[in-house]
Hints:
The complex is a heterodimer of chains A (424) and B (108). Chain A has 424 residues and is mainly alpha-helical.
Amino acid sequence: MKTEHPSDTQFLLKQLFQQEFSKMVAVIASRYGLDHVALAEDIVSETFLSATERWSKDGLPPNPAAWLYAVARQKTLAQFRRAKIYSEKVMPGIRTGETPAMEEPDIDFSPQQIRDSQLQMFFAVCTPIIAAEAQVALALRVLCGFSIDEIAAAFLTSKETVNKRLVRAKARLRAEGIRLELPPSTEIAGRLHSVLHILYLLFNEGYYSRTQDEVLRRDLCWEALRLAIFLTEHELTNLPQTQALVALMCFHASRFDARQTVGGGIVLYGEQNESQWNADLIAQGIRYLELAARGKTISAYHIEARIAQLHCVPGDSLAKWEQILRNYNQLLMLQYSPAAALNRTYALYRARGASAALPEARKLQLEANHFYWVLLAELQRETDREAARESLERALQLTRNNPEQQLVKEKLDRLTVGLSRDIG
Amino acid sequence: MLFRQPATSYKKDLPNAMEALEKKWNDWAGGIASQGKLADRGIRLAHHGQVLKAGGLITDGPFVEVREILGGFMVVRAADYDEAVTLAHGCPVLENGGSVEIRPMYED
């Protein structure tokens, strides 16, 4: 037997936990039913606890994943037998009547079974009857195997809040009788809409997260990408909008390194070092977007992916900004969002200049959004510095976290330097 | 909003001019959409077609006895009628001798 350094075992366990937790929960829950997600989580957690104890003493088994599956299977069967004894021997003594015959569940951790169970879990978790915030939390827990602590850190909230949210979401699933099964294939496309939306939210939660923890932020994005790719591997869900979403995530993720300062600050798009953009991810994005283009419909993800792709084109040509503008126009005609409205106006500014964009910006009615004031300041900067300064002050009052505040303060400083240079 | 335009306005246009016009529409409608006021981007109508009249009589255009034909429509969300009129300003159809007809919609 190999002797491993304890910390190696710890590291491997953490990795295995991330990879296997959600798979095992999905398989067990798919046998027991969705109302036993908590039970499935308990069984898998216990399995990992046994692994920690055993492996730190005896070293790693040759195939750690298989070991985990075998133990989880035993624990599930033991649990089943306990439940059976309870219902057959104890319950009849309390109440009379037939108890339904129960067969031992067949717990099978084959790749096919894991894939199917996870897909079923996917559709069950992403049901629109749960509030979006709770859905993302539940997806992180059940589909990605995030700990409550990690989810709390990602949402900048307390463990208690996350726990409450999860308990409520699971209760809702139970109360509404949501079953762990795939919708009929005719309904897949419709239901897929909310599944993709959750992945989109999950990715954004990482990309624009308010948490300072950079590793955690990237984890959220990678998990969203992993799950989206997982959906493209299944025939039923490998639809153009799924491929477009994967493309969108690839393009965004390609700029991870470039948009991050060493100190954890945000580097704005215009100031990013283009050589830090990840060429592999851009190539992946292009590949998925080409696949997505073969469909008949154009989803918002298609347009957003196209916009993200244009952002991956180096240089700052007017033609590029014209194309970005055109795509934002189309996106907004398909569905409005404040972020798209602001970005459309920024693209208008880059393509046609501040004098064309300023009147359009004033019509947006987004005074409660700090980005609105940052944009306005950018448009006013050349012609009216005092107005630009006032806009940035308004922005500063509306910022929600440190990196955002830092950005606005830097802009204010630069503006003031410009002012004093003019006066002095 | 109903867009009416002279029946002949696009026939002799070059592809470049069509593209420029497309861009203007995109900008104008995008501007309304960016205010969250586009309710339905509507449809565009082809300039050719036929008219069925009583008695089974079918004729080619002109569709009606007016100089401007209906080119398409769009639905906007405005606080009042005046705002809808304000939104209609800048519509590219106005540059080609056409007009925008603004009509309130009945709610179901």
